[in-house]
């Protein structure tokens, strides 16, 4: 239909002795867009156990509501052990940016930083740089508990020599104070456990500047 109308228009112009005028579509215009960068925990626990990994995911969104696909996004890490933002990984910008196998050794904060982008043609847009809010990922020490005979033996790592472990027993609906012990230089403690079926107790590893605390619950069978 459009082809037929164009020929008819040119024929009319020819009959009137007029030169036909070519009509072009308007040129693409570059837009100046601001961006928002986000970062969150996609998979894994928080806090995670020492030695385990977590997966973080981020996104870069332009002020027009679309995703920014030009430029790069870098994941940075900040810890008490190294109090400066250190680059961990860099990926191309996208509506979904995945950072798998993130393995903090101590409590850490992460942020995603987008470089921004300057258009190289009228078919591209300009994007401002932006960064996400810090995301805190806690790390709890790895604890292994065994019950040889009538004893409870626990080993906690890393860096847990001669530190306090809090044991509580269940009385009624609550856990109440039972014992407080300290680990040896290897991070190991040993305590006599009651030989009573149904006895319930908890083991609490306190937090410090580098690691998150946690409590595990047990029952004698």
Folded structure, characterized:
The structure is a single chain. By secondary structure, the chain is mainly β. The protein is built from 1 helix and 19 strands. The protein has one helix at 2-15, and strands spanning 32-33, 35-43, 48-49, 54-62, 72-79, 86-92, 97-102, 108-114, 126-127, 130-131, 135-137, 139-140, 142-146, 151-157, 164-171, 174-182, 188-192, 200-205, 214-219. Strands 5, 6, 8, 10 and 11 form a 5-stranded antiparallel sheet that branches. A 4-stranded antiparallel sheet has the order 16-15-18-19, with no helix packed on it. A 3-stranded antiparallel sheet has the order 2-4-7, with no helix packed on it. It is elongated and about 80 Å long. The chain starts with a helix and ends with a strand. Mean pLDDT is 87; it is low at 1-18.
Which structural class do the helices and strands define? Answer: mainly beta
Q: Summarize model confidence as the mean pLDDT.
A: 87
Radius of gyration (CA) equals 31 Å
Total helical segments? 1
Overall number of structural domains: 2
CATH topology of the largest domain: Immunoglobulin-like
Topology overview:
Elements: H1 2-15, E1 32-33, E2 35-43, E3 48-49, E4 54-62, E5 72-79, E6 86-92, E7 97-102, E8 108-114, E9 126-127, E10 130-131, E11 135-137, E12 139-140, E13 142-146, E14 151-157, E15 164-171, E16 174-182, E17 188-192, E18 200-205, E19 214-219
Parallel strand pairs: 1-9, 3-12
Antiparallel strand pairs: 2-4, 4-7, 5-6, 5-8, 8-10, 8-11, 13-14, 14-17, 15-16, 15-18, 18-19
